[in-house]
Amino acid sequence: MALRVGSHGEDEEILSEINITPLVDVMLVLLIIFMITAPMLHQGIEVALPKSEAQALPTRTQDPLILSINRDGLVYLKDRPVHPTKLIEVLTPMLRGRQDEMVYLKGDRDVAYGRVVEVLDTLRRGGIVQVGMVTDRDESVGRR
Q: Going residue by residue through the chain (144 aa), what tens digit of pLDDT does each one get?
């Protein structure tokens, strides 16, 4: 956008300034969109995680492999159901091409403890020993 200053003669000076108002508007809209969609980017199925006081594991650069066990005892890899007998068969090729061989296990707090141990045992027998347990942070601990 140009602005004419002075008379309409040959010595006319043109000032040009960038109007940043539309840029700020677009950036604010994008910020709002990302703030709304970011919580939806979690992986795996929705389970009610148990509470824990343990420190969180450091974040990795690759997307983690997340196994979830819902309250009915069904096992999911990310959001896809996997039969427990096929678990190692599906996970092994996925881990082979990764730098990080960690598998994260999300077990619903209402699922039987034995079911979680069965999945851990299946992973162990399949050679997958780096397993992290996913929990929610117990917020009541810090408030005492």
A: 555 555 555 666 776 888 888 889 999 999 998 888 776 666 666 777 677 776 666 665 567 788 899 888 899 988 899 998 899 898 888 888 777 788 888 888 888 889 989 999 999 988 888 888 888 877 665 554
Contact 73, 116 (CB under 8 A): no
Tokens of 136: 């929610």
Strands (E), the chain: 2-5, 13-16, 51-52, 65-69, 75-77, 80-81, 103-107, 131-133, 136-137
> Domains in the chain, start-ordered, CATH in brackets?
2-40 (no CATH), 51-142 (3.30.420.270)
C-alpha–C-alpha distance, residues 137 and 135, integer Å:
7
